[in-house]
Write a structure and sequence with these properties.
Blueprint (H helix, E strand, L loop, with lengths): L5 E3 L2 E3 L3 E3 L8 H9 L4 E2 L3 E3 H5 L3 H5 L11 E5 L3 H8 L9 E6 L4 H5 L10 H12 L4 E7 L1 E3 L2 E2 L1 H11 L3 E5 L13 H10 L4 E4 L5 H11 L3 E4 L2 H4 L3 H6 L7 H15 L2 H16 L9 H6 L3 H12 L2
Helix pairs in contact: 1-12, 4-6, 6-7, 7-8, 12-13, 12-15, 13-15
């Protein structure tokens, strides 16, 4: 695929390979790793606007960042235009350059509350949310799906709504809400959306290799690609796509992740996060399954470092 810089509002991203916002994973340390390996943009985990409104500690922890993160993007979830506008312009998000509005989450409790992918069914409200967030002065992006059901997809129509409301970029997950995270992505829907708007369109879904990324770019004409869970399993996909290598091994990367996470978060969070990311990365390594139970039994950082070294030095 062609690697190029991409403009989002007044920002120029270093590459058109993006890392998806993933609940439980895309905390500050992982975003820094993805950037180091070539990602042009990474997002926080999904942050609930209501949680921020009521000063929820767990939600605020999702906003951890530092000056080391050159481009800062937060993904905001919510369904009430006034609340979304207020949080977008709040002091809590002052450091962030980009607000990505979640209009694609398919999870039942999110959908039932009128948030996430449910906003695709209420285009007037979706547009009001975009316009409200745009008043923050930040670049506004939207992540959505091809539609709600496989027999009723309308990505192109929704992309036009987003652009007309002021969105600076849109990412389309090539599956409908009913498909959740399984099934072959509908690249034709992404292609139609790309043809319908002038803002950048990012293709998401089913990208596990350079070949996959090249194919989806060729078939959709998209401006870039977004890697999701495969980025956790194989972070080096960013290097493979962009040609930018850190020269580090998986073991070195994980040890740096332990240290960086411990610097910004408490031990409980650090243990939980490293266990999850190491477990994902173990999928690509032969002969490590027998160590998974031992990994999750680690009760402190010293023990965690020992087990990570044992597994990833093999």
């Amino acid at each position: 695929m062609e690697i190029k810089k991409i403009r989002v509002g007044n920002l120029l991203l270093s590459s058109n390979v993006l890392m998806a916002p993933l609940a439980g994973y895309t905390c500050f340390p992982f975003r820094m790793l993805a950037y180091e390996l070539g990602a042009g943009l990474c997002f926080t985990e999904m942050c609930g606007a209501n949680g921020l409104k009521y000063d929820d500690k767990a939600t605020k922890r999702l906003l951890v960042t530092s000056e080391k993160e050159k481009v800062k993007a937060v993904q905001l979830l919510g369904g009430i235009p006034a609340v979304m506008e207020k949080m977008a312009g709040s002091e809590l998000l002052r450091e962030f350059d980009i607000i990505d509005i979640n209009m694609g989450c398919p999870v039942p409790n999110v959908f039932k509350s009128g948030e996430g992918s449910a906003l695709m069914l209420d285009q007037k409200r979706a547009a009001a949310i975009i316009r409200g967030c745009k008043r923050s002065g930040k670049a506004i992006t939207v992540k959505c799906r091809t539609g709600i059901r496989e027999d009723d997809m309308f990505a192109a129509e929704f992309a036009r709504v987003c652009e007309d409301a002021g969105a600076d970029m849109i990412t389309i997950h090539g599956r409908s809400r009913s498909m959740m995270y399984d099934g072959k992505p509908y690249v034709r829907e992404i292609a139609m959306a790309k043809a319908a708007v002038s803002i950048p369109v990012i293709a998401n879904g089913g990208i596990f290799s350079v070949e996959d990324a090249t194919r989806i770019m060729d078939e959709t004409g998209a401006d870039g690609v977004m890697v999701a869970r495969y980025g956790l399993e194989h972070p080096f996909i960013f290097s493979e796509l962009t040609g930018r290598s850190s020269g580090k091994t998986a073991h070195q990367i994980l040890m740096e992740q332990v240290n960086l996470t411990a610097q910004y978060y408490d031990e409980t969070f650090t243990l939980g996060y490293i266990k999850k990311i190491a477990s994902y990365m173990m999928k690509k390594r032969k002969g490590t399954k027998k160590y998974k139970e031992r990994l999750f039994q680690c009760g402190n950082l010293e023990e965690l470092r020992e087990v990570v070294s044992l597994i990833f030095s093999m």
